[in-house]
């Protein structure tokens, strides 16, 4: 049984090298904008067979100083078992304190015929007919009843032509792929109702649809993520580093939007952890000072650069991913893959430095960031 599981889930892979990763950064010529507008059909759930993880995640920055997260995770393990999870989180940004975390397995999962809609017992996620807004409702956990609407303020985007980084020694026949689809700036309305009362999440937000279309611990060993909102701008960035089997390749994608349009988007420079300290519990190099950078050409061909950097303050939370997995998945990963995934979360105030064609603008806003270590 163990040998079967080891072969099916995968403990190690051969060393293919970085040439077995076809990065999204190579899809468009460097002299053009590096992104493609996201249309509604591209937001359909894929519902792949075989081992994969697909998520839709909604990040909220309320005008009252609360940060929030709503997420649906749909996963297939070995092609024989599917699971779905509904996650909610509330954070007090002023004190960098998590106030509520709910993570619930879902039953009776269904997708609409066009794969745009998702439902389960106690949960629904629906996109509007024109593809400009989502409404997420959940009462699967009475500790947190959710009714939130996200309406995008700008176009959505993918990096390159289709957002896909593929894996495989034959680019024409990849055996895995990764993508992220973004709404970088949204108007959020609605609330969470908790046992302590109602929490209004009116404010700004960002949405990401992600697919890890292969064994997740083979696709990425580390992740960095940032979403930032200020009165005039929003910035978002997702970076992953492949395991040594794929040459520890670094792929970063994201963009910056104003209140009404995407300024730049596409592949981005790597995230830098300027200073770190080992976590005394597991020795992962926990970041203490970071720099996120965005670069690109706007629609007029002007060079744009954005920077967020500095001390990130105290850790808001550390999530033991193994502790949140469904039992079936946890038993396989813990016993076979030998991974130790942790997510480190922070929510400092920071100032975005935006340089457009040599002219510099600075604006303070709220950052939510994660550093994830898997293997």
Name of the CATH superfamily: AttH-like domain
Number of helical regions: 4
Average pLDDT, rounded to a whole number, is: 91
Q: Hey, roughly how much beta strand do the residues contain?
A: over 45%
Distance between the termini: 24 Å
Low-confidence stretches: 1-9
Q: What is CATH's topology name?
A: AttH-like fold
Question: In CATH's first tier, which class applies?
Answer: Mainly Beta
* DSSP helix fraction: under 10%
Subcellular location: Cytoplasm
GO cellular component, one term: cytoplasm
Protein name: Survival factor 1
Keywords: Cytoplasm
Helix-strand blueprint:
Layout: H1 2-9, E1 21-22, E2 35-38, E3 52-62, E4 66-77, E5 81-92, E6 97-105, E7 110-111, E8 118-120, E9 123-127, E10 133-138, E11 144-152, E12 156-159, E13 165-167, E14 176-194, E15 197-200, E16 203-212, H2 216-219, E17 222-229, E18 233-241, E19 250-258, E20 262-267, E21 272-278, E22 285-297, E23 303-311, E24 317-320, H3 321-324, H4 327-337, E25 342-346, E26 349-356, E27 359-373
Helix pairs in contact: 1-4
Kindly describe this structure.
Belongs to the SVF1 family. Keywords: Cytoplasm. This is Survival factor 1. The chain is mainly beta and 375 residues long. The protein has one domain (2-373): AttH-like fold (Beta Barrel). Helix content is 7%, strand content 55%. It is built from four helices and 27 strands. It has helices spanning 2-9, 216-219, 321-324, 327-337; strands at 21-22, 35-38, 52-62, 66-77, 81-92, 97-105, 110-111, 118-120, 123-127, 133-138, 144-152, 156-159, 165-167, 176-194, 197-200, 203-212, 222-229, 233-241, 250-258, 262-267, 272-278, 285-297, 303-311, 317-320, 342-346, 349-356, 359-373. β9 (123-127) and β10 form a beta hairpin. The longest helix is centred in the last third of the chain and has 11 residues, at 327-337.
């Amino acid at each position: 049984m163990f040998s079967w599981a080891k072969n099916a889930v995968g403990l190690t892979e051969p060393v293919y090298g970085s040439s077995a990763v076809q990065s999204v950064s190579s899809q468009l010529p460097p002299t053009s904008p590096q992104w493609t507008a996201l249309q509604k059909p591209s937001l359909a759930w894929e519902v792949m067979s075989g081992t994969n993880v697909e998520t839709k995640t909604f990040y909220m920055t309320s005008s009252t100083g609360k940060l929030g997260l709503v997420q649906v995770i749909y996963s297939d393990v070995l092609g024989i078992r599917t699971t779905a999870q509904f996650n909610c989180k509330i954070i007090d940004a002023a004190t960098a304190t998590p106030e509520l975390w709910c993570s619930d397995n879902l039953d009776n999962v269904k997708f609409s015929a066009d794969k745009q809609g998702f439902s389960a017992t106690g949960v629904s996620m629906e996109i509007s007919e024109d593809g400009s807004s989502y409404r997420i409702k959940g009462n699967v956990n009475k500790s947190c009843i959710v009714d939130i609407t996200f309406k995008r303020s700008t176009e959505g985007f993918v990096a390159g032509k289709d957002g896909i980084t593929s894996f495989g020694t034959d680019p024409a026949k990849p055996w895995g792929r990764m993508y992220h689809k973004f709404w970088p700036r949204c108007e959020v309305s609605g609330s969470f109702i908790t046992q302590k009362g109602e929490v209004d999440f009116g404010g700004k937000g960002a949405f990401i649809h992600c697919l890890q279309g292969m064994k997740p611990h083979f696709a990425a060993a580390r992740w960095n993520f940032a979403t930032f909102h200020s009165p005039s701008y929003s910035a978002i960035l997702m970076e992953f580093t492949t395991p040594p089997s794929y040459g520890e390749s670094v792929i970063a994608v994201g963009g910056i939007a104003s209140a009404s349009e995407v300024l730049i988007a596409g592949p981005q420079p790597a995230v830098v952890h300027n200073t770190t300290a080992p976590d005394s519990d597991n020795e992962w190099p926990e970041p203490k000072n970071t720099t996120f950078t965005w670069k690109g050409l706007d629609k007029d061909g002007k060079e744009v650069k954005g920077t967020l950097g500095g001390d990130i303050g105290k850790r808001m939370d550390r999530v033991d991913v193994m502790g949140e997995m469904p039992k079936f998945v946890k038993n396989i990963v813990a016993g076979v893959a030998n991974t130790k995934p942790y997510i480190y979360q922070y929510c400092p105030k920071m100032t975005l430095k935006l340089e457009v064609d040599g002219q510099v603008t600075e604006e303070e806003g709220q950052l939510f960031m994660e550093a994830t270590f898997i293997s």
